[in-house]
Amino acid sequence: MIDYNQIEIEHSVHLFNKRDLVLVSGKNAKVWDVDGREYIDCTTGQGVASLGHSNPAVVKAIREQAGKLITCSGSFSNDKRALFMQKLIDITPDNLTQVFLCNSGAESVEAALKFARFSTKKTGFICAMRNFHGRTFGALSATFTPAYKKDFEPVVPGFQFVPYNDFEKLKSQVSDDTAAILLEAVQGEGGVNLGQKEYFQQVRRLCDEKNILLIIDEVQTGFCRTGRMFAFEHFDIQPDMICLAKAMAGGVPMGAVVCSDKIKMKPGKHGTTFGGNPLACAAGLAAIEFMQKENIESQSEKKGKYILGKLSQIKSNRIREIRQIGLMIGIELKEKVQPFIAALQKEGVLAIPAGPTVLRLLPPLTISYEELDFVLDKVQQVLGK
Ligand SMILES: Cc1ncc(COP(=O)(O)O)c(C=O)c1O
Fold first, then answer.
1. Which of 133, 140, 192, 193 has most ligand 1 atoms within 8 Å of CB, for mutation?
2. 302 Cα distance to chain centroid
């Protein structure tokens, strides 16, 4: 029998610690390995398969579009891209009127940073400690964690870091050269740290007073993950740009920046070959229509509350704190999380860490209550030991 795991280990640039599991198929919340073993997937490819694996509406759209037109440069218009852009404008606040389509979260952050510098003619950015915005040079420069940047310096200059949810500290760093403030509404990779409404409202007011752009990175939180279409909706604010990716096209690689008319770009100042290709746009359109038709926002909110209720009853002195918003769940432990992730995998549940001590669950928003109960039983079993 072919050892796919070994082949990948041998031939990959060594960047991932492999989990010794070869996944070959998936359906909604379930995935199967090469030996036919079933798992409930609470990783969803780092929050991508929010509508479940191989969501039938998305699959249908991809199949149809693949037979029609897969690629179409931004120099031409395209029916699916036009409809998809219209959809993004419809589901975002009224002040957001322009869309840039790309292929990943880091690319969306890169674009937003360039748009901010070009449109404001200022160079500085203020970002939060314990954030994560991606691995490319601009996005990496906006990311705090020194371990990610060490060995790749010099990174792009102009980034300052302040504690998350501390308005006075942020305000003290603002200067005449601050182009934008870039924040996640919930810090996903940093440990599922929830943003506070009052903080975000204060930041919004400060940006208005000082003519600074507010960029919200919704790459992980967007598209109903937190019980709202976008997490900033919990704060009653309107950002100047939002960065999107992960769940936006039902699993097909895609990213976007949705911008207000404060962003004024010119042809040639940024670009992409694959961004906005009709295949991804068709998938994205089907994904958002599915979210709207199935009221995925409210499913996410209700299931999140259900999980929190059950998790709160778990008796385990290993747990320091549980943080939850919609179906974004972080269980902070008093010890390293990795052995518990491995134990859950043995029990048929795939979970991911968020930093060294946080067990993160990002199940599909379409997961059934029965499957949630299975996951919760296993979490109880593993943490209770
Ligand atoms: C908030 C946030 N921004 C940006 C990124 C980078 O996205 P990508 O891995 O698609 O480049 C991530 C990835 O985890 C993320 O969580």
1. 133
2. 20
